[in-house]
Amino acid sequence: MKVDVILGLQWGDEGKGKIVDVFAPRYDVIARFQGGPNAGHTIEFDGKKFILHTIPSGIFHPEKQNVIGNGVIIDPYILFKEVDSLHAASLKPEKNLLVSRRAHLILPSHRLLDAAYEVSKGKEKIGSTLKGIGPAYTDKYGRTGLRVGNLTDPGFNGCYSRLKERHLEIIHQYQFDFVNYLIDGLPFDEYEEVWLDAVKRLKEFRFIDSEYYLNECIAGGKSVLAEGAQGTLLDIDFGSFPFVTSSNTITAGTCAGLGIAPHRIGTVYGVFKAYVTRVGGGPFPTELHNEQGDLLRKAGHEFGSTTGRPRRCGWLDLPALNYAIMLNGVNRLIMMKADVLNVLESIQVCTSYEREGILSDKLPFDLGDETLHPVFDTLPGWNTSLDDGVGFEALPENFRAYTTYIEKATGLPVEIISLGPDRTQTVFRKGD
Ligand code: GDP
Ligand code: IMO
Ligand code: MG
Question: Which ligand is nearest to the CA of 271?
Answer without folding.
Answer: 1
